[in-house]
Amino acid sequence: MTKTLKTRRQFVSTTMIGLLAAPSLLRAQEQEPSAVRRNISSFSVDLWQDHFDNLQHGAILCDIDSRAVQYWSEDESVYKLYPSSVPASEELTRRGYTEVIRKVEGPSWRPTPSMKERNPEWPDYWPPGPDNPLGTHALYLSWQYYRVHGTGDTRKIGRQSSNGCIGLYNEHIAELFALAEVGTQVRIF
């Protein structure tokens, strides 16, 4: 009796899973691979030597394509890899070399003039706090308006969703904030 029940349960479970999965499998097979987009980073791991001449003050590499941020400490004892959000479009993306010029815990936020143009309903100022668009910590770069910062909106991580900045989970930016220093070199590519 027990063996029959187990067999029936297995049969019903297997059949139900097959019936529930079949429509989505069929839809997935009908779509072209390029039409399927997911919130997944490829996390390519790079060598710092391919991007920087040295590790003086450490290095942060922001990879737009793999949607990942990598960090190396000056003495190479620390390496970190974080998933990130990246600019929503190529027009909002700035690529090249810069550096951390300021670190702010509990940053306030003001939208840039171009952000206000695109979104006039946005406030002119947002004080520090849990809903702040810059999250809990921000690393200000030498390029005006560009930051590596946190976000409380975890749906953005792994996506093209920012207005130009690189976003990290708040717990990851807190960790990177503690590791990076003013003068840490940054490459966004």
Automatic annotation (TrEMBL):
GO function terms (MF aspect): glycosyltransferase activity; peptidoglycan L,D-transpeptidase activity
Keyword ATP-binding: no
The keyword Glycosyltransferase appears for this protein: yes
Pfam families found in the cross-reference section: YkuD
Gene3D superfamilies registered for this protein in UniProt: L,D-transpeptidase catalytic domain-like (2.40.440.10)
GO cellular component terms attached to this protein's record: extracellular region
UniProt keyword annotations, A-Z: Cell shape, Cell wall biogenesis/degradation, Glycosyltransferase, Hydrolase, Peptidoglycan synthesis, Plasmid, Transferase
Similarity remark: Belongs to the YkuD family.
Protein name: L,D-transpeptidase
Organism: Brevirhabdus pacifica
